[in-house]
Amino acid sequence: MIPLCHQLNLSKIQLHIEPSDKALQISCSVKCNERTGVEMEALTGVSVAALTIYDMCKALSHDITISEIQLQQKTGGKNDFNR
Q1: What is the pTM of this model?
Q2: What's the CA angle centered on 50, arms 10 and 7, to 5 degrees?
């Protein structure tokens, strides 16, 4: 977490978890009406969801990995981004 980060009034948060072959694909979309991007909030949402799933499943296996957390798309703020 980034200490002393500015407060944002988020207008929408959507978390989606989709199972695939021996994996879960987690995505998080975040929106706000501020003049800044909310990519850190979306990346935090994905990270916390992945850690929660790990915690709930660790009794089955400690061989679980969390990987490839990355920004896919960002619009608004100073720059747009699309992977």
Answers
A1: 0.83
A2: 25
Per-residue pLDDT at 64: 94
pLDDT digits (tens, 9 = 90+) for 20-75: 988 999 999 999 888 777 888 899 999 999 999 999 999 999 899 999 999 999 88
Decide if domain 1-62 falls under CATH 3.30.70.640.
yes
80 is catalytic: no
Domain residue limits, the chain: 1-62
Residues 21, 55, 63, 80: which is the catalytic one? 55
In the block, residue with structure tokens 């949402």: 45
